[in-house]
Amino acid sequence: MRSSLCGPQLASDVLAASFRGMYGVSPHMFRAPGRVNVIGEHTDYNDGFVMPAAIELYTWIAAAKREDRLVEAYSANFDERIILSLDALTGPPRRHWSDFVRGVAATLEGAGHQLSGANLVIHGEVPVGAGLSSSASLAVATALALTSLSRVTLPRLDLVKLCQKAEHEYVGTRCGIMDQFITTFGAAGCALMLDCRSLAHQLLPIPADIRLVVCNSMVKHELAVGEYNRRRADCEIGVNLLQEHLPEIHALRDVEIADLEDYREVLSATIYRRCRHVVTENQRVLAAAKALQSGDADRFGHLMYRSHASLRDDYEVSCRELDLLVHLASSTPGVYGARMTGGGFGGCTINLVKTDVAETFKAHIAEAYSGATGITPEIYICEPAQGAQAWPTQWNDPV
């Protein structure tokens, strides 16, 4: 049911028909996109800069209001149904897809927004474990559905922050705000540069002669949650140690590379490398924005390769398969740049490719990667997509 294959209206119609078969009424439809981070990895939780784009792979939710205080959610992907009481949502993470539904509902209720019961049928197009933010896509789509059905008026930025809080407290991932932000505020045809401290953001059009090509290694980053939290802790240790000499800093966002070199002796070798990645990655994002604005795709691509090297060597979140995909891309005509994207330990690479060779690139990478690993990759030729919305965009308010 991928919209990239069959079109969003057909995806919506198929899910709506499934909902009618289950509940006998027509649903309202909501969707939230996945995202690919073009450059700026592991900087968001360090108050830094990122440049993601929403992509045309969505979490779709068909939803209708109930008259009680229950939320019944069915996952078409897992063929599982859960029933939650809006009056009994507490509890630790269960490492189950329903944590996102429960967490969003609990966080909204905890913020004083009284929700109506709802029936939800959920279908996700965003591949799980690929670093394309299936989690934020599910959380934001759920929040949009529940608030809309309950006639809760919530500013979009508040929705973003509540979804982030839900993932912290009910899923157990101490994520930054980037994923929820781009899933909500993404714009068709544009990347978005976000200052993760101030939340100031700037839309940056992607030229029509460039495609974002996502190559899924099909290696699942099962270790990513634990290692992600460990990397975040490493950064916090670095800040605490540097603050003894640089009391004005609050996060690695505030550290210049010269500062880091001046005080590297107070850091262990590992903590130094973690900090160096974040400090230099922030610089790369700012340079990449200037390159995109000036139409310098070659410069942008060079920054992507440098980002990957830093993620591989300093942050140590790449893996053999991701490194191979970047290597294959680097020797392919028409490719400006490539890097791993997402949390790491598997998942995807993002490639900046000339539009007229995108299909050739896709075929070449699929054959070369499969030949080297025995794994058939999934490759998506993407255009930046619109953020979370009711579908169609004009719809009647629920009764």
Element layout with pairings:
Layout: H1 3-6, H2 8-23, E1 28-39, E2 49-65, E3 70-75, E4 80-85, H3 98-110, E5 118-124, H4 134-149, H5 156-171, H6 178-185, E6 190-195, E7 201-205, E8 210-216, H7 224-243, H8 257-262, H9 269-293, H10 297-313, H11 320-330, E9 335-341, E10 348-354, H12 358-373, E11 378-382, E12 389-391
Parallel strand pairs: 3-5
Antiparallel strand pairs: 1-2, 1-12, 2-5, 2-6, 3-4, 6-7, 8-10, 8-11, 9-10
Characterise this structure.
It is a single chain. With 399 residues, this protein is α+β, with helices and mostly antiparallel strands. The protein has helices spanning 3-6, 8-23, 98-110, 134-149, 156-171, 178-185, 224-243, 257-262, 269-293, 297-313, 320-330, 358-373, and strands at 28-39, 49-65, 70-75, 80-85, 118-124, 190-195, 201-205, 210-216, 335-341, 348-354, 378-382, 389-391. The strands form two sheets. Strands 1, 2, 3, 4, 5, 6, 7 and 12 form an eight-stranded mixed β-sheet that branches. Strands 9-10-8-11 form a four-stranded antiparallel β-sheet. β3 (70-75) and β4 form a beta hairpin. α3 crosses α4, α3 packs across α5 and α11 (320-330) crosses α12.
